[in-house]
Specification:
homodimer; about 300 residues; mainly alpha; two-stranded antiparallel ribbon; 15 helices; about 0% strand
Chain lengths: ~300, ~300
């Protein structure tokens, strides 16, 4: 039997170790490093690097080949959380049970720490060599991650999220907002892993479908947890969406139908990777985990 | 006789055209694009892409080979200006004679527009192919630019600049602050150009010395202009350094000695590229221009 708990623990240990090694190697000490560490060490789930490594495994490659690219994606994710929490944006004082970066330090430091993590991601992607990955593949990976981070992905989603506050969105608008804001980077993590594992185009296609579905499922559970989650387990306030007048899945579909949607999305994600066989076992377990998480 | 005015005009036209083409090709319409354009179209001098192309030329390469990398560096420079102007940082309402990005839009949009330009730079660097540049060289260029943008360069300089406000810096502290804040990216622009032009390591070394000196000369003239510049020509308020209690060259050395330092730095930059002969004529003219600029 596949034990997800053990698997996640092993991966997270390797990821946390690699993040620490990269910071020691690439970032000089000082206030910026402290602020970057504050947000990186805040007990994140490391979902994106875990998915990146699991995707490499799922196409028959080595998970280690996707370790550094996975860390780079985690740097981008962390930068986006730091900027999203700023007073001018979501104005969240707490993140993962600890003061947000701008609360622990100050706004200027938080803006720069986010910026520094953003750059560091690309520095890692350009400079860390992995056996078996050609320079052409490395450039393709940088392009895929930049595309998912920028105007065709995360940052456009963050902009729309702010613009849509107070608006009554349709379910399609909400879906495309979240595909951009969180879905694009999750998909990039999975595709990057597949490329690191030298997956073929058919496998990459299957993994894209998997990623699009779990990315959305992740967001819908986020919305659900903002209503019925336990703030202590989650390490942040609940009810924020309502306070910020954000459109949510439960707000549009109701709680029951949102929960049904999560199950449906997970089902579709599992179907997509069915042809990948036993090597995709970790990805299946992660899909189930996303549907059942309580924080 | 080399005519700098004509040369700069020709280069700037090509750079502005390329920036526009890249935005049309790579950035979907909407508020983010408007904010990015607002800051990109604000009449910047395009010093970094001009230097990048002139360095390609100086090593015997084609200036066109450095056009897209030069634009990517301009995107990074523009992102840094947008974030630097924010209320939490320098709190500058005006930039180049127009409202700063957060004044024309709002803080959230300005933070995201800066972020989007930052990502776009790396997307351009990874995806735009140039004849004669190998994938290995392209990765090396991305690494050099990321290194100059991040914790070993610009962002560390911006952080130190904020932290040092109100402090009495020594001339060495001030020098290293500016080598990070503006010098590193100017140096990266010149080295990138040399790599695009397939320059050898000896040529690159000479250009690094050139760039370090003109980068500093540029900053010293900036400090001088903040005291004796014409706000109308400059499109921004003068006396900002004093208001923000920033250490400056004239503040430490006096105005006369600062002007002497500029001449000295330009002299050193010219000596460094003397062996490059006639092909480096544009770089020489740019060095003189930096010393004599009035805005």
């Amino acid at each position: 039997m596949f034990n997800l708990e053990t698997y996640l623990q092993k991966r997270r240990d390797a990821i946390n170790q690699a993040i620490n090694d990269l910071l020691i190697e690439m970032v000089p000490g000082g206030r910026l490093l402290m602020a970057m560490r504050h947000s990186l060490d805040a007990g994140g789930k490391r979902l994106r690097p875990v998915l990146c490594m699991a995707a490499a495994e799922a196409v028959g490659g080595s998970p280690a080949s996707a370790l550094f690219p996975g860390c780079a994606i985690e740097f981008i994710h962390t930068y986006s959380l730091i900027h999203d929490d700023l007073p001018a944006i979501d104005n969240d004082d707490m993140r993962r049970g600890r003061p947000a970066c701008h609360t622990a330090f100050d706004e200027a430091t938080a803006i720069f720490a986010g910026d520094a993590l953003h750059t560091l991601a690309f520095e890692v992607l350009a400079s860390q060599k992995t056996d078996g990955i050609s320079p052409e593949q490395q450039l393709r990976i940088i392009g895929i991650i930049a595309d998912a981070t920028g105007n065709h992905g995360m940052i456009e989603g963050q902009m729309r999220d702010i613009l849509a506050q107070g608006d009554a969105l349709t379910i399609d608008d909400l879906r495309s907002l979240h595909m951009l804001k969180t879905g694009a980077l999750i998909k990039a993590a999975v595709v990057t892993g597949a490329l690191c594992g030298n997956g073929n185009e058919r496998q990459i296609k299957a993994l894209e479908t998997y990623a699009a579905n779990i990315g959305l499922a992740f967001q819908v559970t986020d919305d659900i947890l903002d209503i019925k989650g336990n703030p202590e387990l989650m390490g942040k306030a609940v009810g924020m969406d309502e306070r910020l007048k954000k459109a949510t899945y439960p707000g549009i579909l109701g709680l029951d139908e949102s929960e049904a949607l999560v199950r449906e999305l997970v089902e579709e994600s599992l179907q997509a990777i069915d042809p990948l066989g036993k090597a995709a076992e970790p990805l299946r377990a992660v899909a189930d985990y996303i549907a059942q998480r309580n924080h």
